[in-house]
Amino acid sequence: MTAEEAPPLDDSFADVLAGVQRLIRRRLSEGLSVPRLRGAQVELLRLVVARPGIGVSAAAKELHLAANSVSTLVNQLVRDGFLRRETDPGDRRSARLHATRAAEDRLGDWQRRRAALVREQVARLDAADRAALAAALPALRRLADHLHEEAEGP
């Protein structure tokens, strides 16, 4: 079957992706002894760990969020000890964001638990389903790239 002959993907595709993500988040929050970080907080922390010193406006652009929303997230994460703000030496009105050790530890734990959960659940699938998921990864990455590029705009 060629790409032109493939049946169209309807809303169920997006629903399944969102459902899997939601179930992973829910499972990871079970049994936590510390308050759960919201999805947007985790995304911002992951970005700051990957790009130490990123500014609020650059983070907002990268995450496709309004700058005031990211400012709110930054304030929450600074208050909770996960982010540190430093004044930008080139523009004293701007701040550079840095993850704290607590944030790095929390994210590391989250990533290890997420990897273990997904690994366990994928192992429960039969070989054909595991192969189908592996074969779908390149297409899913391209889909994510296209969505990212389109969000960036011209």
In angstroms, what is the radius of gyration? 19 Å
Decide which structural class fits the backbone. Answer: mainly alpha
Helix content: 55-70%
Apparent shape: globular
Query: What is the first-to-last residue Cα distance?
Result: 34 Å
Largest sheet: 2 strands, antiparallel
Q: Largest sheet, order of strands side by side?
A: 1-2
**Total DSSP helices:** 6
Strand content: 5-15%
Number of E-type strands: 2
Mean pLDDT across residues: 88
Q: What is the ordering of alpha helices and beta strands?
A: HHHHEEHH
Task: Summarize this structure as a short list of keywords or feature phrases.
single chain, 154 residues, mainly alpha, two-stranded antiparallel ribbon, 2 strands, 66% helix, 10% strand
Helices and strands in order:
Layout: H1 11-29, H2 39-50, H3 56-63, H4 67-79, E1 83-88, E2 91-99, H5 101-123, H6 127-152
Antiparallel strand pairs: 1-2
Helix pairs in contact: 1-5, 2-4, 3-4
How is this structure best described in words?
The longest helix has 26 residues. Helices cover 66% and strands 10% of the residues. The protein has six helices and two strands, in the order ααααββαα. The mean pLDDT is 88. It is mainly α and 154 residues long. Helix 1 crosses helix 5, helix 2 packs across helix 4 and helix 3 crosses helix 4.
